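Shall we go through a protein fold together, starting from nothing but its sequence? Label the sequence line and the structure token line clearly, so we can match residues to local backbone shapes. Would you write everything just below, so we can both look at the same thing?
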Amino acid sequence: MALTWAGFDRLVHEGDTRGVFTMLLEADEAQRRAFGAELESRIRSAAPAGRGWGRQEPGWSPASYALAVIACAPTAARAAALLSRREMRQWHTIHVDRFLELARARQLPWVGELGVRLAQRSRPGDIRLVTEWEFLAALFDEGKADPPVTEAVVASWLRQMHTGRPAALLRNLRASPFLDRLLPGVFAIDGLGAHVRLTPWDGEPASVFSVAVARLCAEGRLDRTSILAATVDRLLRGDRPAALRPFARLHEELAPAPSEMVPLATSYLRLLAAAPSPVAGLAQRASRSAWESGELEWERVLEVSGEVLARPEKALVKAQLSWLDRVARRDPAAAGDVVAVVEAASESPVLDIRELARAVAERHRPAPTAASPALRAPVAGEAQPASSATPLVSDVHRSSPAAVIPAAIGSAAELAEEFVALLRERTAVRWERVMAALVGLPAEGLGEALEPVLNRNDRTGRTRFTALDAAIRALDAAIRALDAAIRARAGLPFDPHEQQRLHDVVQHPRSLVHTPADLLDLRLAEIAVRVTRSPIPELLATPTHLTGSLDAGVLIDRLTRLEAAGAEPWPLDFQQALLRVAVPQPERPAEDAGILARADALTGPHGRRLAAWLRAGGLPQPISIRFEQRHPLSPDRRVVVNLQPGPGDLSGLGDLTGLSGLSGRPTFGGLGGLGRAGDFPEDGDRGDPEVPGGLEDLDLEDAVVSLSRAAEPDYQGWLTYRPDVLAMVLPHHREAAAAWALPDLAALADQDDRDASLLPLLADAGGPPGPAVALAVAYGLGARHAADRVAAIDAFLALTERPGAVTVAAGDVLPSTGPSAAGFAAAVGAELGDLCSDGTVKLARVVEALTDAQVAGATGAVWQLLTAALPRLLPAGPRGLPDMLQLATLTVTAGAAETGGGATAADIPGLEELARRSGGSRLLREARRLVAALGKT
């Protein structure tokens, strides 16, 4: 059969690989060389097919073309280049016997070289199938070549060694001609440990890598000394824990004798100091075995012990202390050095370790007078001298005046820059500066500066939304409204549908907001609609401080200028200004008397309302009602807070109700957002577009303090969480802001969400903290992510430096515990006791956060929290309770003066009963330590 492309293509199309093989085998070398001239161009023009299970182009067969390559390629380099192409890398389809028979027919001397080149060209993951490895192995064997030790080759060989059952791994390793060549690569190449089997899936221990290699060492097939050295070296060089685990198990299977470990003593000691916990434990046992046999000097043990005692693993540290105790017992000359090393552990926050370190030091101390003060300090909580007591928490976090907001934007060019920055990072401060500039800057020049920026950052392409677009709507609504406001102010054209939509928003606002943070969208809509129809020289509500607070004198000045200009304030802008204005405080009567006198001098209706507002003390603080949400199909629960408007005398505003439509007490609600289809009335009921009203119908003052949650928790809420915007809307009502944000803050702990940035903002805000703030901090302390717990700690430290009762509705607060339960720290503790008792919040996370707070100096606050939380936790016994009891003991020890001085175990109901139980569990030991510490304060 002549070797022609027509005949070749016909056979390939028919799938006749045997016919292809016969045609290539019967051809002479001259025919093959002529055929090969076009072969390379054909392969290079083939469509890539990916892996073997991908679709092939008609008339394309990698297996047939591979036979043509070995039959026609002039050199190993050319053959390897062709076979390594992506469209040819389906080596599992190659008939290996036919491939080799063609090579033998040509008497090729480079078959082994071809295998080496193919292996070297392979990347990790390329040789995934066992049959692909078998193809390469056949080339190595045929050409008597050694495979290159690369990650791809070793991983593929290792995968093939695990093929078959039962106990196939041991048999395959024993029979492999490449064992001596490739097995060292398993130890030398990072990450290959993840490719070996850890458990005997077929019930035969020999199918496990560590067992199989150890048996080969026992049989003499492998050199035991070399394998042990390679194992320790692999552990010493480190890797991911999963990749190191097989080598740690291999070390256990080898069970080296002390004499075998002596040459590796330095490596073991290095592992003991710095390796991952399981490997360090292995090294500790090996090193101690070598020392006990007399093969390792005690000086070398002491050299590394300081680093070991500083490790966080309690079991490892305890074992090291026990070892040091044995060292001092066996060699009295080492006793002084042992005591010096052990002193570091005497400061451990883990009381078990501290007690053990003290016992070892006292046992081997040469003379009692040499004891250091740290070691003489009682472990269980002996009171410290007054001079050494930890400072009060108020000395750690002192309040400072709120920072002022950056200077106003002064030009159209600066406004354009700030707009671009706002698109990248949408902070509340940037929103306020941009809105203030839109209203306050002259209209001249705005179009030239802003039109290019608007066109490059168009957000107005979507004017209709479906139910699935909720997230997009929530993210872009404010930007869309801002775009419209800029175009209106700059005299630029914009979509008339958008103009009408914003008019509808202003006309019918109540159903279009869900939280106070959504008021930003309404204020932007108000600017877009009113900036050209009823212009004012400046916004009233622009805050003067970063907290969102507005200085009363500044607001009076702004309102005076509006009255002088004959302009009437915009409704929502005025109401937001009222929420932000700093009302008179009892501690500054002289200063506030002047403010009230200036307000009384205002003559317009808005001025009179401002004066009455300031004299009434502003919006009364809301009544918080603790509310438990439960899921009907699971035991999951979430504790939130409902709000009711607080009692207050606003009768002085009665003659002004027509000014803002004070009618009833509306709340935020509805299912829509800005621009949701179906939220607006029909066209015939839209009202006069030239006389925007509507916003007067939104009683903002009552709406922000009226909240009623559903009976079931919502774990799939789509509302956008804007913490800094929310905090700026309510700068003097932190309790209301916390209540609105509680579902998002609860999700930090029960859904492992992120972003606790509201918590420090709540700490900087004004108004008394109540159940909502206490719950917010409690959820933050139990957050999944460390950065969120840090934010909660900051808020806790700041709020506990300002003593004061927690404002609650009668009957809606958790029962108090002890004389300090009225404080904020005790309120947080009561919530944590409830939430952690059933695992709603993980206690271990809370203990970690509280430990950081205690170390930061908040000893008294942490103690108040613990005394409120423990009575609820002791009966439930949740995971992490021993750690919380240990923290309580450390807190008592660190600052007896701050923890009440005369505090006793009776102040924590259930503690003494727990301590009196028989047994030696850690929970009981920690309870007894706390009782002992309280007895000595």
About this structure: Residues 208 and 467 are 54 Å apart (CA to CA).
